[in-house]
Amino acid sequence: MSPGKRVRMGDVVRRRRTPRLDAVSVLAVVIPLVTVGVLAMVRQPPVHDRTQPPALTRLTSATVVCPARVPGSPDAWVSTASGGSGDVSVRAQGAASSMPVRTGAVARVPGTDAPVVVGRDALAPGLLGLRSGTSPLTYQACSVPSPQQWFTGLGAGAEHDSVIELVNPDSGSADADITLYGSHPFTARKLHGITIPAHRTISLDLGRIVPRRMLLSAQVQVTRGRLAVHVLDSRTNLLTHQVRREWLPRQDGPAADSQLLGLPTGKGTRTLQLANPGEEGVRVQVKIVTGDTSFAPAGLDTVTVPAGATRSVSLTKVLAKALGDGAVGVQVTADGPVTASVLTDLGTDQAFTVPDPVIRDQAATLLPVARGKGATPVTATLYVAADSAGAATVSAYDASGKKLLDRRVGQQQGLTAKVPLPKGTAFLEVVPESTRIRAAVLLTGDGASVVPMHELLTRGLVPQISLGQD
Q1: Disulfide-capable partner of 401 in 98, 105, 307, 431 (CB 3.0 to 4.6 Å)?
Q2: What is the DSSP string of 189-212?
Q3: Alpha-carbon distance 108 to 110, whole Å?
Q4: How far apart are the two ends of the chain, measured CA to CA in Å?
């Protein structure tokens, strides 16, 4: 400060508070900004999602499993709807063999064990099998191993009993859990963590494992490997010891809307059996299906099925008149998923009607044919219901493969077509056109059986595997 010059205190203070930008400070700010800008200009390589869903492909190998021979169901048959012919392999009685098959014809499978039939290459798509009897009529389609199956209307008592058969078709062991639904869901030690050794069959008699008089339904869950599951249901008159046996058809799973086609006529009782596997009660509305309409019958209120329970409802009165007026089935609509079946008890025989799955493509089934002098002929009637206007081509063959019927049936939404099948029909094929359908065959003769038709397994899923992925 020069002598004689005054400086005010406010100027001094302002000079001290004014920041000074030096080179270091500038670089500390500029360098990060430049770095961010350069990185933003760098183009990142694209990230490819290597995960892909499984791809559909034509089957090159297919397996169907028939239940073991039991009283009343002595015959096992096999065929193919592939359009070709050749040999399939059959494992039964602990030994493997081959047998010729061709489209439209049926071949008898020897032995009493549960036969495992394998078709390869051109014979894999459309492989079919049947276990049946005609005196009285019994029917069980040989099944494709499935991870989960449902059965509605089982018993575990002296008068009404059911046997669950588990067949392992493979060379490794398989595991399964079975959950039963009565008044509530339950299981048992012998029904949980079941291990079925390779190429073995296990039969579980519910009357011995969980003896009780209530009506039951079952969920069979395969937790390891593959299994084919069948249920033989029997009712015994404790006074006469007369036994009536019938295979209980499987269901893919619970549904909120189901259509059950095929109701045997004749004197007897009809019972609707419903199972609710959910955690809340459901309300179920029941309608009667005729050839040209469906209606809610008078005197049958909405049915409530508690959570985890199986309940039965008598349809004897409401169907007594309806069958004479052309009733062909029952429609079940619920506010939650349920499984269902209709039991027709004819006194000397029994029959089950279950929900018919949707058919979008080719469907086929084998049918029992009465053989031998004096055998009661089997009469077969096909019922087809469509979701919309369209058509369905129906082809029927006898046991030798001779075509007996080739008919195109027009379809309208809400209508159910009735197609009488020629006598001796052993192989039936139904192909929808421009619509989805549901179909079932009613068999009558020495008793009755109802055959739900399923879409043929012609394609499989192949996983997409990418290298370097965990």
Answers
A1: 105
A2: GGGSSEEE-TT-EEEEEHHHHS-E
A3: 6
A4: 78
- Which of 199, 165, 136 lies closest to 449 in space, CA to CA? 136
If you average pLDDT over each of 12-21, 235-244, 436-445, which comes out highest?
436-445
Q: What is the spatial distance between Cα 150 and Cα 289, in angstroms, rounded to a whole number?
A: 24
Token digits of residue 173: 């062991």
CATH superfamily, region 144-249: TM1070-like (2.60.290.11)
Quick one: tokens of 144? 């494709």
Q: d(Cα 320, Cα 325) in Å, to the nearest integer?
A: 9
Integer CA distances (angstroms), 396 to 155, 240, 356, 424, in order: 36, 40, 20, 9
On the CB side of 258, CA atoms within 13 Å amount to 31
What is residue 455's predicted lDDT score, i.e. its pLDDT?
A: 95
DSSP 436-465: -EEEEEEEEESEEEEEE--B---EEEE---
Distance CA 459, CA 470 (A): 27
d(CA 359, CA 373): 37
Which tokens belong to 299?
């005197």
Q: Is the model's pLDDT at 414 over the cut of 80?
A: yes
**Buried residues in 294-304 as b, exposed as e (16+ CB within 10 A):** beebeebeebe
Both structure tokens of 438: 């549901």
Decide if pLDDT at 278 tops 90: yes
Residue spans of alpha helices (H) in 368-443: none
Residue 16's pLDDT is what?
A: 44
pLDDT at 19 exceeding the cut of 80: no
One-letter amino acid for residue 356 of the chain: D
Token match 């049918």: residue?
367
The predicted-structure confidence for 336-350, as pLDDT tens digits, reads as follows 999 999 999 998 999
- Who contacts 264 (Cβ-Cβ below 8 Å, separation ≥6)? 344, 346, 351, 442, 444, 448, 450
> What does the domain layout of the chain look like in residue ranges?
144-249
Burial label for 436, CB within 10 Å (0-12, 13-18, 19+), is middle
The dihedral over CA atoms of 16, 22, 27, 29, expressed in degrees to the nearest 10, equals 20
Report the mean per-residue pLDDT for the chain.
89
